Amino acid sequence: MGSNHQPAHILLYGAGSIGGVYLYQLLQAGCKVTAVCRSNYDTVKNHGFHLFSVRYGNIVYSPSAVVQDVLECVDQVFDFILVCTKSLPGNKPSLPEQLKPVLSGRPQTAIVLAQNGIGIEDEVAAMFPQNPILSGVVYCPAVQTGPGTIEYPEFLNLLELGTFPSTAPHRHAAERFADLMIQGGGGAQVHDDIQVARWSKLLMNAAWNPVGALTLTTDGDFLRNSGPYGDDLAWGVMVEIVMLAREMGVTGVTLQVAKEKFAIASKRAETGTGREMSMLQDVRQGRSLEVEAILGNAVRLARDKNISMPRLETLYALTKARCWALEKEASKVNR
Amino acid sequence: MGSNHQPAHILLYGAGSIGGVYLYQLLQAGCKVTAVCRSNYDTVKNHGFHLFSVRYGNIVYSPSAVVQDVLECVDQVFDFILVCTKSLPGNKPSLPEQLKPVLSGRPQTAIVLAQNGIGIEDEVAAMFPQNPILSGVVYCPAVQTGPGTIEYPEFLNLLELGTFPSTAPHRHAAERFADLMIQGGGGAQVHDDIQVARWSKLLMNAAWNPVGALTLTTDGDFLRNSGPYGDDLAWGVMVEIVMLAREMGVTGVTLQVAKEKFAIASKRAETGTGREMSMLQDVRQGRSLEVEAILGNAVRLARDKNISMPRLETLYALTKARCWALEKEASKVNR
Q1: Closest Cα to residue A247, out of A298, A206, A292?
Q2: CB neighbour list of residue A51: distance below 8 Å, 6 or more residues apart
Q3: Kind and range of the H or E run holding A114
Q4: Spatial distance between the Cα atoms of B227 and B117, rounded to a whole number of angstroms
Q5: CB contact under 8 A, A321 and B225
C-alpha cells in the first residue's frame, strides 16, 4: 500500500449508484480514481456523472480515468480496489476471476467489498489469500436513474468497515479507507467485528428486499396492505436471522436490534411512506437479483446448523424463481 | 325446482372462461341459459362465444339470453344459478348481495358455486338459508384470451359436486345438475362430502397459485429453477394444509393425496413443461387475485385451531400485498 502522504490510487469496480457517490467522495479526498464502467461507459467517458443529491448538491464530475475492462489498467498498481458491484456469488466469471488481472502479483492492494449479503468475502479471500480484504456495509440510498445519472435524495451516508477476517492484522487499511471517505464528506466507521454490522443489515435486507421484489410494494406499503400476516412475515424473518446469528457466534445481532430495524418500516407504514428496496428496483429494470448473497447463503448456513427457517426459505425459493423468470424475459428482449 | 322433464332454466353468473365452457355444455343438454356478462357483454351479445377446444372442437354459440345485470331478469324463476365468477369473499358488494334480486322469495332456486377456495359457501348460505346450495370443484383448464374468445387446449373436464352442507337433503339437485353437465359432454361427479374434493384441490391451488403470481413461473418452471428449496416450499404448503384438514375433520385429505398432487408438478418439471395457474394469468392481466378464498380463509382457520402455517402465511401476506399493488396500478391506468 502506498504511503499515507501520497494520494491514494483507487480502482473503482462497479460505478453504478453507490460507486458513483463514493467516486465523488474519493475525488474530494484527493484520490486518483480509475473507474471501471460497463453499461454507462460511453456516458461517463464523455459527460461524467450527474449527481442530484441532498448531501452534496447537484453536481457533475468525472473519474480520473475511465475504462471498460480491468485489462486496460493491468500496468497500474492500486492501493485499493473498491468493489461496488452487485454481489452475485456463484455467477460466472466469479468476482475474483474478474479482478485477477489487476491483482496477480500485487499482494499489497487492499480489496474493499462494499456489498450486501453475508458470506460474500469467502471466494475473494480464497483466491487472494495474501491481500488485505476489507468488508464494507453500505448505507447510501442512491439510485442510478439513467446512465451516469444518480439520484440520492437522503442525507444518510455511512460505510461500516472492518477487516476480513475480523482477526486479520490489516486494521490500518480499514482506518485509512474510512479516513478517505470522511475527508470526502461521507460517513465511515471502523468496526472490530464487521460481521455484526453485516448481519444487522441482513435483518433488513433479508426481509424487505424479497418482499419488494415479489410484491412490488415498498416496506411501508407492504405492512399497511398485507394485514397482521405481513408484520408476522417480516418479523418472523428477522427472528430466524437472529437465531442463525446466535448459532454462528455472531454476537450483537439480538431481538432488540431486530425490533429497532423492524420499527423503521412500521413507522413508514404509519406515516404512509416507504422505501423502494434495491431488489424492487432491479425487478422493475429487469436486472439480476442478489438472491444468493442475501438469502441463499443464509438458508444454506441454517441447514448446516439445523436451524429452521421456513419463512426465509420460502422467500429464497420464490426470489430465485423470480430472478430466473426475469433473466428469461431479458434474454427474449435482447435476442 | 322445475320438473326433470322440463328443460332447466339456468342463470349463468360470470360468463368468463369456465362459465363459457359450461354454457356450451348446458346448451347441449337442452337447457335455457341466461348469461350475465360484464366485460364481454357487447361481444357476446353480438357475436356469441368462440371456443377453441380439444374437447369440443372450434365452435361458436350464444346464450339463450344475454344480460348485463341480474336486475334485467328479476321476473324469471331459475332452476339453477350457476356461479362461475372469481371467488372474492370480503369484496363489496358481496356475492349474495349481487344475487339477491333474483333469489328473493325464490327458495326453490338452487345455487351452484363453481369456485375455488374453502369456506366460500358461508356467506351465501347465511343470506339464503332456504335455498339448496351446491358446492362445486372445477377442473377445466380454459382461458378467456379476449372478450368472448375461449382457449381450452386440454381434454380435462370435471365438475365435482355436492350439497352444502354435506348433510343437507338436496342431493337430488346435485344429481340433476351433474346429469346436465354429462349430457352436455362434460364430466361430473356427485360426492357425499364435497369438502374432501374442495380441500384436495386446495392442496394445489394454495401451493401453485401464489407461487405463479409472485414469481411469474409455471409450476414446472418453478421447481426446475428454485433448487431444492422450491420443492420444500410447495411440499411444505401441502403438508400444512393436510394438517389443517385433519384438525378440521375433513377426512381423505392425506399426505398420500398430497404426494399425488405434488407429483403432477414434479412430472412437469422433469419434462420441461408447466401450467400457468389462474393467479399468474390474473397478474399478467392486472385482475384481482382470489387471495382470501384460497389463502386467507385457510390461514385464519389455522390460527383459530392453533396450527402453525409459516409457509402458507408467508404466501398469503405476499399475495395480499401483490394484489393491492395490482389494484393500485389498475386504478392509475383507468384514472
Answers
A1: A298
A2: A20, A21, A24, A58, A59, A60, A61, A150, A152
A3: strand A110-114
A4: 28
A5: yes
Following CA atoms B93, B98, B104, B107 in sequence, which dihedral angle do they give, to the nearest 10 degrees? -110
Q: In chain A, which residues have their Cβ closer than 8 Å to the Cβ of B322?
A: 214-217
User: What b-and-e string marks burial along A154-178, b requiring 16 or more CB atoms within 10 Å of the CB?
Assistant: eeebebbbbbbeeeeebbebbebbb
> Which DSSP state fits B8?
P
Contacts of A286 (CB under 8 A, 6+ apart): A326, A329, A330, A333
Interface residue of A217, A225, A243 to substitute, partner B, most B CBs within 10 Å:
A225
Nearest to B22 by CA among B78, B77, B100, B80: B80
Buried-state track B97-125, b at ≥16 Cβ within 10 A, e below 16: ebbeebbeeeeebbbbbbbbbbbbbeebb
Q: Which domains does chain A have, with CATH numbers?
A: 9-192 (3.40.50.720), 196-334 (1.10.1040.10)
Alpha helix segments (H runs only) across A10-52:
17-28, 41-47
Tens-digit pLDDT profile for residues A266-295? 999 999 999 999 999 999 989 999 999 999
- Give the ipTM of the model, two decimals please: 0.93
Strands A149-152 and A110-114: unpaired
Q: Point out the residue among B216, B324, B325 whose CB comes nearest to the CB of A322.
A: B216
Average pLDDT, chain A: 95
DSSP letter at A7 equals P
Instruction: Collect all residues with Cβ–Cβ distance below 8 Å to B248 and sequence separation of at least 6.
Output: B301, B305
Listed residue (B160, B147, B109) closest to B131, CA to CA:
B109
Q: Which residue has the cell 501520497?
A: A6
Alpha-carbon distance B118 to A108, whole Å?
A: 65
Determine contact: A10 vs chain B, CB below 8 A: no
How much is the CA Rg of chain A, to the nearest whole Å?
Answer: 19
| Residue among B221, B230, B322 minimizing CB distance to A215 | B322
Rg of chain B over CA atoms, in angstroms? 19
Is A1 within 8 Å of A110 (Cβ atoms)? yes
Amino acid at residue number B83: V
Is there a contact between B40 and B30 (Cβ–Cβ < 8 Å)? no
- Cα A65 versus chain centre, distance: 23
User: Which whole number is the average pLDDT over A259-268?
Assistant: 97
Closest CA to A188 of A277, A131, A112: A112
Q: How far is CA B109 from CA A223, B8, B105, B114, B193, in A?
A: 43, 11, 10, 16, 21
- Could you say which residues from 190 to 229 on chain B have a Cβ atom under 8 Å away from some Cβ of chain A? 211, 214-217, 221-222, 225-227, 229
Report helix, strand or coil for A22. Answer: helix
pLDDT of residue A332: 83
Residues of B in contact with A316 (CB under 8 A): 229
Q: pLDDT digits over A36-92, tens only?
A: 999 999 999 999 999 999 999 999 999 999 999 999 999 999 999 999 999 998 889
Long-range CB contact pairs, B176-179, < 8 A, 24+? B176/B1, B176/B4, B176/B8, B177/B80, B177/B110, B177/B112, B177/B134, B179/B29
Q: A320 and A299 in contact (C-beta within 8 Å)?
A: no
Which residues does chain B have with pLDDT short of 70? 1-5, 334-335
Distance CA A333, CA B205 (A): 31
Give kind and range of the element (H or E) at residue A237: helix A227-248
pLDDT at position B335 is: 53
- Confidence at A2, pLDDT banded by 50, 70, 90: very low
Q: How confident is the model at residue A4 (pLDDT cuts 50, 70, 90)?
A: low
Which amino acid is located at B301 in the chain? Answer: L
